[in-house]
Amino acid sequence: MRKLIKSSMLVLSLLSLLLVFWQNPVAYAAETGQISGRVLDLTNQRAPVANQLVTLQMAQGSNSRDVGSVKTDAQGKFSFTKLATDQTISYVLYTRFQNAQYISKAVTLNDKSSQVADVEVYEATTSTANVAIVQSTVLIRQADPSRGVLNVSQLFSFQNLDKKTYVGSLNASKGKPNALFFSLPAGVKNITLGNGFSGYQVLQVPEGFASDAALQPGTNEFSYSYEVPYSSSTYNFTYQTLYPTVVLSMLVDPGLHASSKDVTSSGVVNADNHAYHAFKSSVLPAHSRVTLALDGLVVPTANDNSPSFNAGLIWLFVGLLVLVALVVMILFLVRARRKRQVSPAQQKITNTKAPEAEGSAEQTLLQELLALDKEYEAGKINQERYEKERNKTKARLRTLMSEKESAQR
Question: Sheet harboring 180-183: ordered strands across?
Fold first, then answer.
């Protein structure tokens, strides 16, 4: 039996070793990938950028992480080695150049383990003179009457005609920051940023919000969404252009009745597999105001927003109140009863205090008579005064003794 156990353990050990040796070549073979390239400045005719930090990011499924970072050499070159070549893995390279973020094309290594991917950058500018919005879209979805809000999304297609990347700043120490601005209606809440804002910061301003997001030469897409509270069946949605806008489209859910003097109805269109009533306007200068009147909104009621109460909790609360009232009443009765009851020690003190007080008064009067006799004998007072004071003191003494006898009866 022992020999059989030893033999079985030996077989398992050999299988484990074979499995390890079989897996290791695969692991090493899967990490033979290489990605190399250069950082090129397109503003300066693709000149190489030296000493620029480049980061490699790996994505697999819904997960992503940075693999590592290197700096470019004098020729702007970089290289990453020993990379996994699984077909489910993809890579991108990114760098931050003059406060703007640049990303390479996506690279996979399953077909070819060695790939070249350059990162193209542009010189920065702080001028928006060559910036315009080619297409601005406002999408107003069906209202949520239970919360009394309209769900709105805005999409922008910026066109930068410059050969440099516009890079703004949120520094407001000198007043309004030189940044990219986006408008919002008054009172919005739950703002969610979408395309174009990754890696950048935002700052609230009176007309909406500002961002230090960069605008590279060419087309740049941005999007965000928010909620607009409403309290009646009508609402005037206001949109303001902050840059020259070639085309403005406002798409409204067919369940809402919309009208406007600032935009023209263009029928029903399909967006995101949903039909919308479209309104359009063209060639709008910066700071133009467009109003869209919405009608037919379901008015939120007090019951929609009021919390629901559980009947069992209500009765539990009432029971607790009754219990507290009973406890307070019992404490009150106990205190009242204690006040009415006097302990034997207290009774003894009460009974002895009166005789002590009476004895003290009687002794005082006797002392006064004795002092009066001494003064008369010493010749300090005459007989008339002596007899008058003595009779008065003796009268007080008789009264006190009479009261004492009455109390003892």
Answer: 180-183, 208-211, 202-205
Average pLDDT of span 264-292: 93
Sequence length of the chain is: 409
B/e letters for 26-63, b = 16+ CB within 10 Å, e = fewer, are eeeebeebbbebbbbbbbeeeebbeebebbbbbeeeee
Residues 203/228, Cβ–Cβ less than 8 Å: no
The DSSP-derived string for 229-273 is E--SSEEEEEEE-SS-EEEEEEEE-TTSEEE-SSSEEEEEEEETT
Nearest to 375 by CA among 390, 394, 395, 393: 390
pTM: 0.63
Tell me how far apart the alpha carbons of residues 49 and 39 are, in angstroms, rounded to a whole number: 6
Average pLDDT over residues 320-347: 73
Do 116 and 135 belong to one domain? no
Query: Does residue 167 contact residue 122 with C-beta atoms inside 8 Å?
Result: no
Lowest mean pLDDT, pick from 124-128, 293-297, 332-336 = 332-336
Give the Cα separation of 211 and 193 in Å (integer): 11
The parent domain of residue 323 ranges over 307-337
User: Cβ distance 253 to 140 under 8 Å?
Assistant: yes
Q: Are residues 142 and 209 part of one domain?
A: yes
Q: The domain that contains 86 carries what CATH number?
A: 2.60.40.1120
Between 344-377 and 383-408, two packed helices, what is the crossing angle to 10 degrees? 160
Q: Are residues 332 and 383 in the same domain?
A: no
d(CA 278, CA 256): 12
